[in-house]
Amino acid sequence: MRVDNIRMLVGNMPCVPLETDEAPGARFWIKLEGCNPSGSVKDRACLYNLDEAIAPGRPQRGQTILDASSGNMACPVAYFGRLMDYPVTVICSSKLTADKAAFIRYFGGELTMHGDLTIEGNRLCKQMADAEQGKYCFLDRLHNRANPSAHYETTAPEILADFPDVTAVVGSLGSGGTMAGRSDGGSGNGSRGPGAREGFTGTGIDASARAID
Ligand SMILES: Cc1ncc(COP(=O)(O)O)c(C=O)c1O
Predict the structure, then answer these.
(1) What pLDDT does 55 receive?
(2) Whole domain around residue 170: which residue ranges?
(3) Which of 12, 68, 70, 159 is the most buried (most CB within 10 A)?
(4) Co-location of 139 and 64 in the same domain
(5) Which of 85, 110, 143 is the last residue of a domain?
(6) With bands split at pLDDT 50, 70 and 90, how would you rate the model's confidence at 69?
(7) Residues lining ligand 1, CB < 6 A?
């Protein structure tokens, strides 16, 4: 397989059946988002946010890509920022694990630890961007439509293509972008997407989701 750009490896993740007898009569499939280049579903929204941030007409070269994360988003920001040749600074909460910190630093990201919740880091990003106008390109994915759009335009259509009769989508919440995009997206005709078919269940709710203002 030839791939011109590693970003082409983001998304289109395969699904495998989950063997379980916990819910007789139900069939579960797991979408292997961990196979994305930086190791999680966050690669999708990261690319959408980066592409929007560095679109023509926006501030570009010389700026430092900046965003807040508890860890999984910081990895692709560091990774794709490096690939796109931008310096990266990420503000991470106390939830950051050692392996993710090593990943971020390996790809040259500058890492600052701040607070226990991503929203706290987000506020610090805003202060930094305001204090040094022009220095940073703050992605602000917690308040950025490009975040759910990634799932509206990619994850949701993939789920519907593989499972036209899907009845529920289960996922986790941080900013809410993944599940919001899945819920609305994918139909291509304005009707509601796979997450909204028979209702969806969010699991593993991140404390930051409750803190987002
Ligand atoms: C592996 C993984 N999947 C899904 C999510 C949900 O992300 P969000 O709600 O920000 O789209 C997170 C949140 O941090 C995550 O780490």
Answers:
(1) 78
(2) 147-213
(3) 68
(4) yes
(5) 143
(6) very high
(7) 40-41, 70, 72, 172-178, 206
User: What value does the mean pLDDT of the chain take?
Assistant: 86
Q: Which amino acid is at 190?
A: G
Residues 190, 34: Cα–Cα separation, whole Å: 29
Same domain, 65 and 151: no
How far away, in angstroms, is 56 Cα from ligand 1 center? Answer: 28
Do 17 and 5 meet the contact criterion of CB atoms below 8 Å apart?
A: no
**Ligand 1 centre distance from Cα of residue 174 (Å):** 5
Residue where one domain finishes, among candidates 116, 143, 170 = 143
Q: Is the pLDDT of residue 188 over 90?
A: no
More confident residue, 24 or 208: 24
- As given in the structure block, the two tokens for residue 161 are 């293509």
- Please state the separation of Cα 120 from the chain's center in Å: 18
Report the residue among 30, 31, 41, 139 best suited for mutation to probe ligand 1: largest number of ligand atoms under 8 A from its CB.
41
Bridge partners of 65, per DSSP, are: 88, 137
Ligand 1, pocket-test mutation among 173, 179, 184, most atoms within 8 A of CB: 173
Output the CA 8–ligand 1 centroid distance in Å: 21
pTM of the model: 0.86
Q: Is the pLDDT of residue 30 over 60?
A: yes
